[in-house]
Amino acid sequence: MTAVTPIRTAAEKALGEAIAAHLDGLSAPLARIAAPAAAQFATAGLPHRRIEDYHYTDLRALLRAVPPAAPRATADAAPIADCLPADLPRHRLVFVDGRFDAAASDTAVVAGVEVAALTDALAAGLTLGGVAPEADPLVGLNSALAGDGVVIRVAAGATVEALLEIAHVTTGATLAAVRHVVELGAGARLRLIESHAGPDATAYQVNAMLEMRLADGAHATLVKLQAEGSTATHFGTLAATLGAGAELNHFVLNSGGELIRNQLFVRFDGENANLATRGANLLAGRQHADTTLVVDHAVPHGQSRELYKSVIDDRAKGVFQGKIIVRPGAQKTDGRMASHSILLSDEAEVANKPELEIFADDVQCGHGATAGELDEKLKFYLMARGIPRAEAERLLVLAFLAETVEEMGDAEIGAVLTGRIEAWLSGRRR
Fold it and tell me: What's the number of CA atoms in the CB half-sphere (13 Å) around residue 250?
């Protein structure tokens, strides 16, 4: 039988060339990860709408072009973009065009925290993967292209008072991929912000993956601020495991980029663990933002809460795909998932696909999804009291999103999130 050679799009060809160039001269620890992922991409290419998990985000159709990969040695950048208030105290680890920038980073020692380069940690025996499926196209692309990253380890019992930030800055039309690992020892506590920023009107692409491993009793607050440039492509993956009694308090704010997909894979490995993941998508123009999450309750007595809200204007499109899996024997699982959207334009669009897969009989699980316009009665009530229409809409949107921010339970981070939401609303076309 004659072999069938699939027709590759321009983006697939460019990615294939970037992967081939990346593999050339790659260090041995990274090459062991990249080689099989490269072979996987060569066979499968980009995902398309016939693949269930990408039905609403057909990357073969949506991704038209791919910029060249950033050079391995990136010169120190000029002023580094900052997603956070300048007066917010924190320790920054800065990656410019996918490469660690020591000059822009705060390399001061933080008590209880060990920081190492990804390549050094791999050479010393660190293993990657195990939660996010390597067969997932974006996970595979990250494995095939990632050339730099950081490993953060928090000692057992340590409480890190300082706020840590992993900042990603893009300076031009480049393709950048990074891979990070964060490990918390038993009973450790950490607050971490992952931020992404870049120039407007510049077609660049970022693929960032973070693996987080929480040992028994560990507690992590993780916030992702995605504020890419107006024509950027952003792919992000979080893969987390929770030990017994561990807690992950997670938030993602999308306010930039043109094509965005954020993936979240969480597995409960210990009993009485707790996951709270929330998100806010602020979309306008022709943005396409996809949030896909899989929460795997593999053991009994786990609790998960997923709450994502979207404000969608103009011709933008929001996608939410959420799945809660309760494995056989994972009794007393309590899982709740909700997605709510407000459409500010007649041309705005949202697609919701919540799922439950339950293989245990003593559980409490549920999901819900809503989409609609701003309440005209509430808007009229505010306008009747002298509040201009634009301000009335702003107040209603803030009230709609407030629940997700307030439930973080962190006033310092909550102020940052509220500030970014208000900035987006102030810049919205009316």
Answer: 26
Task: Provide the angle, in degrees to the nearest 10, between the axes of the packed helices 411-427 and 389-406.
Answer: 150
Nearest Cα neighbor of 268 from 238, 301, 317 is 301
The pLDDT score that the predictor gives to residue 73 is: 52
**Are 56 and 128 in contact, with CB atoms under 8 Å apart?**
no
Nearest of 241, 250, 179 to residue 215 by alpha carbon: 241
Six token digits for residue 387: 């509040």
pLDDT surpassing 90 at residue 228: yes
Taking 70 as the threshold, does the pLDDT of residue 1 lie above it? no
Q: What does the pLDDT look like over 238-262, one tens digit per residue? A: 999 999 999 999 999 999 999 999 9
Pick the closest to residue 342 from 419, 397, 277, 262 (CA basis). 397
Greater model confidence, 26 or 222: 222
- 212 Cβ contact partners less than 8 Å away, ≥ 6 residues apart: 181, 182, 183, 184, 220, 222, 238, 239, 240, 241, 248
Give the mean model confidence (pLDDT) for residues 165-192. Answer: 96
Q: What's the token pair of residue 369?
A: 């999804």
Rounded distance between C-alpha atoms, residue 395 and residue 374, angstroms: 11
Provide the CA 395 distance to its chain's centre, in angstroms.
Answer: 27
List Cβ neighbours of 348 (8 Å cut-off, separation of 6 or more).
283, 312, 313, 314, 315, 316, 317
Q: How far apart are CA 355 and CA 333, in angstroms?
A: 15
End-to-end Cα spacing for the chain:
60
pTM exceeds 0.70 for this model: yes
In the predicted structure, residue 47 carries a pLDDT above the cut 70: yes
- Which amino acid is residue 358, in one-letter code? I
Question: How many whole angstroms separate alpha carbon 324 and alpha carbon 358?
Answer: 8
Phi, psi of 55 (to 5 degrees): -60, -40
395-413 core/surface letters (b: 16 or more CB in 10 A; e: else): ebbeebbeebbeebebeeb
CA gap 95, 92 in Å, rounded? 10
Distance, in Å, from the CA atom of 217 to the CA atom of 209, rounded to the nearest integer, reads 24
